[in-house]
Design goal:
mainly beta; 6 strands; 118 residues; 1 helix; Thrombin, subunit H; single chain; six-stranded antiparallel β-barrel
């Protein structure tokens, strides 16, 4: 059983992302068929997220570029954990995932912090 404090933090994160965020989609290539001739099918997973700019002090021009975005992705309704092989679409913009950090105190994922690159 998860610590009640972290359960409340997760509920707060979900509520704030739903209030200030927007609908997005995590797209993952899912392989099917035999291993010698696999078929890759893009599969969409709806999610709620907030798109923000990185602070100037975080931008180093190598790992984090000025055009990169910081995405806070809610766990609510998301059946997968975002991965570096996935993409995230918001409106007309699609981001390649460069880095994913699970905010995960005591084994309960509160939200995902994603570095997206257009």
């Amino acid at each position: 059983m998860a610590n009640p404090l972290y359960t409340r933090l997760q509920a707060t994160a979900q509520r704030l992302i739903a209030k200030f965020g927007q609908q997005g989609t995590v797209t993952r290539l899912v392989q099917s068929g035999p291993s010698y001739d696999p078929v890759q099918t893009p599969t969409d997973y709806p999610c709620m997220l907030v798109v923000m700019d990185y602070e100037d002090r975080a931008i180093d021009g190598t790992l984090i570029l000025r055009t990169d975005k910081l995405l806070y992705v809610s766990t609510q309704g998301l059946s997968i954990a975002p991965d570096r092989a996935d993409t995230i679409s918001v409106g007309e913009q699609t981001f390649a995932i460069k880095n994913v950090k699970q905010i995960n105190p005591a084994g309960l994922v509160v939200y995902y912090e994603v570095q997206g690159r257009a």
